[in-house]
Amino acid sequence: MDKTVFNKVLKTKDAEQIEEWLKNEKWYGTTGDMEHLFQYWIVNFGHKPNFRPNYIVPNMNSIIRCLKGGTGLAVVPDFLCRRDLENGDIQLIWEGKKKFENTLYFGCRKKTNYQTEIEHIKGLFRKVMA
């Protein structure tokens, strides 16, 4: 995707113009979880988006594969696409005027036979999320 047109729109700092440009692009979403898109839109424009994604795919990994193979936009958690961003397979066009964070919680039983495995999984989460 060529960001030059969007960068010109961003320079105007006109929220309505930015929103309109974004709405007119091709969007990807998932079947069950539109919460990232909704939160992004609320934080940056003050309301939920008044459109639905053009393409609905099963999960976030599918969105990333679609973005790699073509053009379009999606709101994807950074920890899921960090490697693809670093490799240049996909690009970040705008974090938004306000960056929003989504806290993930990892719950488990205190007493379990799988304490070693749980510690391993916690370590992976910390490593990937850092």
Summed up:
With 130 residues, this protein is mainly α. The chain has helices at 4-12, 15-23, 35-45, 60-69, 78-87, 115-129, and strands at 28-30, 55-57. The chain has a two-stranded parallel ribbon with strand order 1-2.
Biggest sheet architecture: 2 strands, parallel
User: What spatial form do the alpha-carbon principal axes imply?
Assistant: elongated
Low-confidence stretches: none
Helices and strands, in order, run as HHEHEHHH
- Calculate the mean pLDDT score and round it: 91
Oligomeric state of the chains in view: single chain
- Strand arrangement across the biggest beta sheet: 1-2
- Secondary structure tally, helices: 6
- Which percent range describes the beta-strand content? under 5%
CA-based gyration radius: 17 Å
How would you characterize the overall build of this protein?
This protein is mostly helical and 130 residues long. It has six helices and two strands, in the order ααβαβααα. Strand 1, helix 3 and strand 2 (55-57) form a beta-alpha-beta unit. Helix 1 (4-12) packs antiparallel against helix 2. It is elongated. The model has no long low-confidence stretch (mean pLDDT 91).
